[in-house]
Amino acid sequence: MSMVLFASVVRVRDGLPLSASTDYEQDRGLQEAKKHLKGLSKKLSLFPDRCTLKSGRYHVNFTSSLGVGYLMICTDSYPSVLAFCFLDELQREFIVTYDTKRTDGAVRPYSFIEFDTFIQKTKQRYNSPRSLSTKINLTDMQTEIKLRPPYQLTVEDVGMANGYSLHTPSKYKGIAPNQMLEPVTLPGIVSCVLSLLCTGLNLLRGVHAIESIIQNEDEDFNYVIAFFLGMAACLYQCYLFVYCTVWRTGKSFLCLALICLCNMYLYELRNLWQILFHVTVGAFATLQIHLRRPQGKAPDYTV
């Protein structure tokens, strides 16, 4: 039977449980899933903000926002869209009920145990499809999950040990796969066009440098390398602007540094204005990459 079995709210920075539903299930598989949930709750900051962990016949789903994590266990046949709608409803109610200062200042486990009442009522609603279908609109969540599906974790991925501790691989510290970037702005489009222009100029000058070497063996082949390295750096900046990758800003600064070094080396072949143009375009592209951040959660959904 498809249903929500357990839910809890925790503080992301240290995994302190703030509230949780009560259940009386003694199923061994469910108890194992709850161990995984407790272990994950202590390491939420290392994972993307929306994940699913498969544990036998159960799924552990969680989402996090504003320093608070919302976790739930459901049967493996329970629709993913409903599961994350459930978590989203818990999140919106918790944010309305408790401010950030109270959450950050909590020192004892289950300081907001009264929130359990809302969790229980919501769980009952989501376990009754007939009454639920007239009260929520799944369209927004379906669209978001299609565009940015939950990161799929496995027990092996998170390295469960002794039921409660995690040895989390560093690969989860990056940005979640398929994460969408903020909408493109006009300055961003301009930076890409200018970077492509610089790419073309470097390619053209590099080809001419190769021709010069063929005609005159005294020419320095390092000039060719400098032109093509500058071209690659400009092209990669366009890639970083378009796609969401790990350490985007850091990579863009490395590209800018490479562009500066190449133009310094090409000082004899380019005048000051040409060098200034290439460096300025590289700096502008780096700024636009930094400003175009990964999208946060979509606006509240209609319920």
TrEMBL record:
Domain Longin: residue ranges: 8-119
Cellular compartments annotated: Endoplasmic reticulum membrane
InterPro entries according to UniProt: Longin-like_dom_sf (IPR011012), Longin_dom (IPR010908), SEC22a-c_C (IPR059071), Sec22a/c (IPR043546)
Key words, A-Z: Endoplasmic reticulum, ER-Golgi transport, Membrane, Protein transport, Transmembrane, Transmembrane helix, Transport
SUPFAM superfamilies named in the record: SNARE-like (SSF64356)
A Gene Ontology term for the protein's cellular component: endoplasmic reticulum membrane
Coiled-coil regions, chain positions: none
Swiss-Prot/TrEMBL GO biological process terms: endoplasmic reticulum to Golgi vesicle-mediated transport; protein transport
Top-rank lineage group of the source organism: Eukaryota
Primary location group: endoplasmic reticulum
Protein's membrane topology: Multi-pass membrane protein
Keyword Disulfide bond attached: no
Stretches that traverse the bilayer: 223-242, 249-266, 272-291
PANTHER family: LONGIN DOMAIN-CONTAINING PROTEIN, VESICLE-TRAFFICKING PROTEIN SEC22A
Function statement: May be involved in vesicle transport between the ER and the Golgi complex.
Sequence similarity: Belongs to the synaptobrevin family.
Identification of the protein by name: Longin domain-containing protein
